[in-house]
Amino acid sequence: PQAWGQHEAPRRVKRAWVIPPISVSENHKRIPHLLVQIKSDKQQPGGVIYSIKGPGVDEEPLGIFSIDKFSGKVFLNAMLDREEHDRYRLRAFALDLGGVTLEEPTDLEIIVVDQNDNRPLFRQDVFTGRVVEGAEPGTCVMTVDATDADDPDTDNAALRYSILEQGAAGMFSINATTGEICTARPGLDRETMGVYNLTVQAADMSGDGLTTTAMAVIYLEDINDNAPEFTKEEFSMEVEEQAAGVDVGKVFVHDKDLAGSPSWLAKFTILEGDPEGAFAIRTDPHTNDGVLSVLKPLDHEVRDRFELTVSVQNERPLEPSAPGSPRALATVRVRVRDVNEAPAFRENPRRISVLEGTPPGTAITTYTASDPDTHQLQSLSYALLYDPADWLQMDPHAGTVRTKRELLHPSAFLQGGWYIALVLARDDAEPPLSATGTLSIEILEVNDHAPQLQPPAGVLCGRPGRGGTLLLGATDDDRPPHGAPFHFQLSPQHPQLARNWSLARFNGEARLHPTPAITPCPPCLPVLTRVSRVPAVSPRCPRGVPAVLAALGAARVRGRRRALRKGLLQRSRDDMRDNILNYDEQGGGEEDQDAYDINQLRHPELFSPRAKPPLRRDAPLSSGTPIAPRKLPSSPSDIEDFINEGLEAADSDPSVPPYDTALIYDYEGSGSVASPLSSIVSSLTDEDQDYDYLSEWGPRFRRLADLYG
């Protein structure tokens, strides 16, 4: 079409050509189809050449539109699809025959008109929803939705939803516009119907056009609206006695709720019949049955049957609206079957005490067991299972244990004074059962050994009232309390000895010394020794012992000492001189006995003033002879004068260190025949130390005796 001015002006006005939008229906089947004719008035007809460009012409999709270049007619050459292209925008051109532009290029818009050529499509073929059983009407479950490819601004895409099929009950409804599905009626029961399958439809043209369908599957979720029930009212089982931790049997239940859910799982309780808690019941997670088991051993002789009342309920509480079940209780009868049981020693171990030396054949105890099978006629027999020293014998029927030989100390079979034996008790059932008992026998010490004086003889020399002292000890083969401490006394069968001799307790031993009124000695001096709290057993003086105490005593004392002295106290290995032990002097102790030679007293003729003074044994080898040699006493028996004169000579000698003074006694030797004072507290505890002997030490120790005796 042409666009002309309304009137002519003084000068010519340029006119433009305008083409309005052109509408064409999709799926148009008459091809080619004239859409429009464009025309320019700049030249006479036949003098203009027309052309178009754009999508559908020289751009993809190609060849849909074309134009007659001389007439300007635009044609549709192919069917259009609005869902692919809903409009096309082209450019139109007008040129003269020489190719000169006559008109400015203009737009040519072709609009594709929609037709209802597309069905609605559901977004999925199957929709799934869930709702609890018993839901109220109007409870929304799910929403179904569909799409339509047609023009949404037309009825071609106006969809409506409906339920085509859901069964005869009609339990659900759908919103036609939104596609929301809700419950329509009460009475949804999972146990009656657990799944609903609905066929839903979507239609365009507001329900009158094209349609499509899909499936809506609705599952009912279980609630505990059914109580569990026992399959029967009574159950019977049996179990062996003494069995513990074993299953007895099962009780069976039924529940209509969803298997495996908390509304289905059962929980059992024993209400009555088991006051001691001997039974337990648990739930089998696979079958939901109750499993009865025994926790504690049952005794057929005490109780041979049980009648239990058992209840069942769910783990999840029952819905208030659900009815209760009359079969939520059941009776379980359990019979305890009798079996052979092993005998048992009620006292195990059995501890007894027997004196050592008990003669063979002495009955020391009766060790028997009891058979718990009181309802069966059975008997028990006994035997020694372990008797390492073969000291015992046992009556196989009565269980009496007797000594087979004397039980004596010491023995390798004793452990701390105890002898251990094992006794076997066996019943006569089939198969037989047995039990083992431990018999612990304490072998009590008996005072059957007399103490022995140590040494049995000794030498004691000196003037009456000024003689030496003999240290006496004792040994005993008996064990405590029939050994030390020992008590010493002169034999009461010789009362005259008390006038010449006296005994003094000295650190667990005795000191024997003569009295001032001593008379000629008898050939043997009997001394009585006894152990504490036990009647005395006196050793006899051996025959053939000459004079009063032979010289053996001093030799035995010296035999305990070391052969060589240390430091300045030197002597030759073959110099075994006998010295006097005087315990009344405060000096260097028993070990310092090398300063003077006792042979000067025994053989004074060898040591006259004319002879060369003897070399002091305790002086250094480099020491010289004193300027004033010692003067021998006129009477060799006067030992005290001899010692004093020798001490005075040593003190007056300026060239020799005063070895006879107290300075020499800083070394007291490496041993002592007397026991150390630390022996009084050598025990680890007060219970290990016997302090009764403190009462015999005299009035000075009376206070200690009162505290510890």
What does this structure look like?
The chain is mainly β and 709 residues long. Among the domains are: 22-113, Immunoglobulin-like (Sandwich), CATH 2.60.40; 121-221, Sandwich (Immunoglobulin-like), CATH 2.60.40; 229-337, Sandwich (Immunoglobulin-like), CATH 2.60.40; 344-444, Cadherins (Immunoglobulin-like), CATH 2.60.40; 452-531, Sandwich (Immunoglobulin-like), CATH 2.60.40. The strands form 12 sheets. The chain has a 4-stranded mixed β-sheet with strand order 1-7-6-3, with no helix packed on it. A 4-stranded mixed β-sheet has the order 9-16-15-12, with no helix packed on it. It has a 4-stranded mixed β-sheet with strand order 18-25-24-21, with no helix packed on it. It starts with 21 loop residues before the first strand and ends with a helix. Residues 1-14, 532-538, 540-596, 606-630, 659-667 and 678-686 have low confidence and may be disordered. It is found in: Cell membrane.
List keywords for this structure.
single chain; 709 residues; mainly beta; Immunoglobulin-like; 4-stranded mixed β-sheet; 5 helices; 31% strand; disordered N terminus; beta-catenin binding; cadherin binding; cell membrane
